[in-house]
Structure formats: structure tokens, C-alpha cells
Amino acid sequence: MVLCDACRVRSAVVYQEHTGRRLCRECFIADVVERVRYEIKRWRMIKNGENLMLALSGGKDSFVLLDILSEIHDPSRLMVVSIVEGIPGYNRREDIEKVVRYAKERGIDTIIVTSIREYTGLDLSEIVSMAWRRGVRESPCTYDGLLRRRIINHYARIYGADKTVTAHNLDDEAQTAIVNILRGDWVGLLRQHPLAPPASRRLLPRVKPLRKVYEWETATYAMLKGFKFQETECMYLELAPTLRARVRAALYRLERAKPGSALRLLETLDELLEKPARELSVEDLPSCARCGEPTSPARRVCKLCEVLEKAGVISPSYQIPFKARGLAYLEA
Ligand SMILES: [Zn+2]
Ligand SMILES: [Zn+2]
Fold it and tell me: Domain 43-232+241-331 belongs to what architecture?
């Protein structure tokens, strides 16, 4: 039996490669919770009494975010929105159902389950095949990311949330940072910083409490807490190897060779970018001529309207019914 390096009482079950410690179940869970708590405090991500809209996909990261936040924030101030993408075999209803049940158990009343179809009239897979038929090779992740963000912000606004909270983990954040650097997207990189204000007054601040927790750690945490999940990879990831997918593969290799690399990268960027991120301006951005949402100064229509139009979605409905559906929607 190998003793836990933290408590020296219980037997170790997890080897935390980036710290070189062997930890027992209790000390590992406590370590993750403490790091999340520290990250929230360090950047003042969340204040007491704030209403938070949690964007949950149904996977392990969603579970961990829900589990930790309901412990450190008043559950009556938490709300959940979950979006069914409409990709065959992915983001299955059962996964979302599980997280919804868990949210209810934790005393969260406002639970919205919606879909990309509800917002655009089409499933994500339909949008993607329409685009491909027209020879538009936009990555499916582009539609997904833009639509998810739009829908989350929409519900957060109507339900009076102060902030939106997403379950992005350290791997996600490190990948995004590298992609931003490789694309030369300086503003994108700065906007990733926890102190960066939202681009527009009409967009809610977005926080990512799990940004310093490795993906293997969220998986282990979920498993140790008895949350059963079956992580299904999005089928588009293989079909269209994006720059992000390549960066992801490279980061895994790097992390194996030098554990803690992704964490140090993010810590370095946090320090380096703190001042310029804080000084980013919140602009009164112009409204998209089509949907009315904020868009960049140089644009007539927003990026979402532009990519949908290119895909051949001529008149997306952009209308989401204003009601919380929760499980009733899933069961229908
Ligand atoms: Zn221990
Ligand atoms: Zn628009």
C-alpha cells in the first residue's frame, strides 16, 4: 500500500503527474476543489449573491463544475442551460438528463434544456451538410461555438443572470491560447484572460472556474464521485482535423514528455497578460443588421449570421421560446 502524500493516512489512488504527488480519493477531491476556489478568488470571478447561468453539456466537466459550484455558491442563485446540438451519436439526451437530475438534487430550480434546432430551425448536422454541399468547408466547431455562445447569452439575459459560467478545463484553455497565438489573434488571446471584460455591454461576463484543472483530473474527479459517464468524441473531430485538433494532439505529447506544461503555459499567460487584459475596453458595438446582436465595428452582419448565410441557412428563425423546459423537454 502506498500512502497518500498529503494526509499520510489513507492509501493513494491517484498519481498527480504535474505535482509528482500520490493522493488518496479524499485528498485528490479536496485538492481540485481548493484549486477551483483559489482560481475564483484570485480573479474575483464570482461574488457572493451573483446569479449565475451554468452552461452544461452533460459530460464529466459539466458534472464537476456543478458539483463544486453548488458547494461553494448559493444553489438558489444557480441556473442551468443545456443545449442539444443535434449531432448523431453525440451529446446524447441521456447525458443531459443525468446532469439535469443532478442539478435538481442540488436544489437548482431553473433548468433550461434547449437545442440548436430550436434556435435555427435546423440541427447542427443539417447545417454542416448544407454547407458542405455548397462547398463551404467551415469547421462544424465554428457553427457550434458561435451558436452555443449566442444561445447561452440569450437565456442568461432573459433569466437575469449576472454572469455565464462554462466548464472549460485546462486542456481546452491551453489549446485555445495556442490557437489564438498561431493565428495571431491578439485580442482573442486577451479576451481569454479572466480579467478581460466582455466585448460589449450587451454580452454578459463569462467565467471558467475549471480553467486550471486538467481534463484527466475532471475525469478522475467525476469517477471518484461515482458519476458515470461515457465520453463520446464529437464525430466531426476526426472528419475535419482543425488546427485545434492538431494543437490538442501536440499538447498531449508535450504534457507526457514534460508534465505540467499546459498549466505553466496558462500561468505564464495569466501573469503576462494581466495588465493589457484589464485595460481592454468595453465598447458599444454596432448591432448586426440581420439579428440585432452586437457585432464588430467593421461588420454589417455578425459572424454567426455570416457563416449561416454562407451555409445556405437563409432565414434562421433566431427565436427561442422563453420558458424553462427542463426534463419535460427531454421526455417529450
Ligand atoms: Zn490523503
Ligand atoms: Zn447577426
Answer: 3-Layer(aba) Sandwich (3.40)
d(CA 175, CA 307): 23
Write the pLDDT tens digit of every residue in 268-277.
999 999 999 9
Q: Is residue 323's pLDDT more than 60?
A: no
Among all bound ligands, the one having the nearest atom to the CA of 299 is 2
Domain boundary assignment for the chain: 1-42, 43-232+241-331
Around ion ligand 2, residues with a beta carbon closer than 5 Å are 288, 290-291, 302, 305
CA 68 to ligand 2 center in whole angstroms: 35
pTM to 2 decimals? Answer: 0.90
Residue 185, strand partner residues: none
pLDDT of residue 97: 86
How many CA atoms are closer than 13 Å to the CA of 13, on its beta-carbon side? 12
What would the grid cell of residue 143 be? Answer: 457553427
Compute, in angstroms, the gap from residue 5 CA to the centroid of ligand 1: 7
Cell numbers representing residue 29 in the block: 477531491
Task: Indicate if the pLDDT at residue 328 is higher than 60.
Answer: no
The continuous run of DSSP H or E covering 120 comes out as helix 116-120
Cell numbers for 229, please give them.
459517464
Give the three cell numbers for residue 33.
476543489
Q: What is the CA(155)–ligand 2 centre distance, in A?
A: 17
> CA nearest 215: which of 205, 204, 229?
229
The 10s digit of each residue's pLDDT in 130-178 is 999 999 988 888 898 899 999 999 999 989 999 999 999 999 999 999 9
pLDDT in tens, 239-269: 656 788 899 999 999 999 999 999 999 999 9
- The 3-state DSSP composition of the chain as helix, strand, coil percent (nearest 5) reads 50, 10, 40
C-alpha 203 to ligand 2 mean position (Å): 14
